[in-house]
Every structure is written in C-alpha cells, then in structure tokens.
Amino acid sequence: MLFVKDVDANGPAIVAAARSQIGVPYSWGGGGYKGKSKGIDQGAHTVGFDCSGLAQYAVYKGTKKIINRTAATQYSDKHCKREPYASRQPGDLVFFGSPPHHVAIVSSATHMIAAPHTGDHVKEQAIYATEQDCDANGPAIVAAARSQIGVPYSWGGGGWQGKSLGIDQGAHTVGFDCSGLAQYAVYKGTSKKINRTAATQYSDSQCKREAYANKQPGDLVFFGSPPHHVAIVSSATMMIAAPKTGDFVKEQAIYATERQPYVERCY
Asked: By Cβ atoms counted within 10 A, which residue in 11, 57, 86, 158 is the most buried?
C-alpha cells in the first residue's frame, strides 16, 4: 500500500538533498538529519543511511524541519500532511506497508530516491508498484523477531498473534517454538499469515525460495532434510531463533551444517 505525505513547498530542495547521497551505502539504523553515520546491529560497521535516516536528512536539508526518525513515526509527524497518492509531488515522502515501515523521497511522477536494504545503497529507482516489491519488509520481520528475545521456548507455543501456551512439554509455558516465532515475525512485518510448522512454512505459497548466498535480513532459514527447524535471518552470519525446550528466543550465529540451510523469502 502506498501513502504520501507532503512535507513542504521546498520539494526540489528535498530531492536535491536526497539525490546528493546517491551511492552512499545502506546502513541499518544509520543516518539522520545531520547526515550519514554508522548504524546499529548489522549496520554497526557501515557509515550510511537506512530509509528513514535518508528521509530525515533530506527533509532537514530542504526545509530545516527535523521530522521523526523512523518510518512509522514520520508517517504521523505533525510537520507533514497527508496527500492522495495521485497528488504526489517531488519532495513528498512515499510510505510502504500497512502500517508503514518503509519510506522514500518522491523525485518524479514515477521515481523515488530510496535506501532499500542491507547490501544495497541509496539509489533513484521506480516507485514500487506494491508493498510486495519493497525489500524493507525484511527489517520489519527482524524487528518483530528481535522484540521477542528472552521469551521462553514452548513446544507448540506462539503464532501470528504472539506468544502462547504450548502443548505436551510446552503446555505450562507461555512462549514460542521455532515456527511459532517465524509465523509471528512474518505476520508483524508483512501482515501475511504463513503456515504454522517449519515443514509447511518451507513450502508456503506466500514465500519464494532463495539461494543461501543471497539471504537477507528477514528471510527464513531452514535446517534439516526435510526441514524441521526454522529461524529468522538477522544478518549475514546471525539469526533469531527459538531453539529448544529449556531455552529462550535468542540471536545467535547461523548453525554451521554439512548441508547448506534452505532459505525462503516471505516478503
């Protein structure tokens, strides 16, 4: 879903500021009204911008207004006003997702300047036709999974609505098992209700197979043949997982296995 917010009549100045950063690396949590900076987590070693950091910078340079820092809070920022998508103008902010979790700067009727995802860079590109074209759902999935770190493992526990009592050995524990956590994170990041077990998530029609070498934050990584365990990729080397009874949701290194894990992208 596309949303547009008109920031100011200084649209061309906002576009010029955003365009001046083309080529700067994407950095999760990076950048802000002062310019590019090191991010956090997978962006901790990269000086650059994430999508909302770029938006905050461009608006400040073009208008001297300091808008909020995240896409969700920028969408409700009091400095901006809602506009129909058909009325978009260069310098407007265009938001993706429901609720919004990705933002870019409109540069023409058909194009925008965006900081898309980890491993990419600030670029001018066609406005996404649908939210499914927007790779920024991946960070939203990671954020949802990360918000549950510390929650106990519960066999059969959890799902798209959140943590819950499990079954059998999990019957007295409120928490998540591996696929319950995956279903929750994908739903919070994309509003898609994927299947509930690791085996059926691997074949879910709402997801597509990706090469392990192409994995991105927010992808699901599966273990076993056939797959019987799943976790959420959070960086090139890390994942967020609900491992086993007696453990809890944690961020940890992706398991090293003889056989490369399988990867599915559900956004």
From this structure: 158
Give every CB contact of residue 13 below 8 A, 6+ residues apart in sequence. 61, 62, 63, 91
61, 14 contact by CB (below 8 A): yes
* End-of-domain residue from the set 135, 165, 198: 135
The pLDDT of residue 1 is above 50: no
- Boundary (domain end) residue, out of 100, 135, 170: 135
Tally of structural domains, the chain = 2
* Domain encompassing residue 227: 139-265
From CA 38, how far away is CA 26, in angstroms rounded? 10
On whether both 59 and 171 belong to a single domain, the answer is no
Condensed to tens digits (0 to 9), the pLDDT of residues 37-49 reads 998 877 889 999 9
Q: Using one digit for the tens of pLDDT, what is the confidence trace for 90-107?
A: 999 999 876 778 899 999
HSE-CB of 68 using CA atoms within 13 angstroms:
13
Q: Tell me the two tokens of residue 73.
A: 């809070």
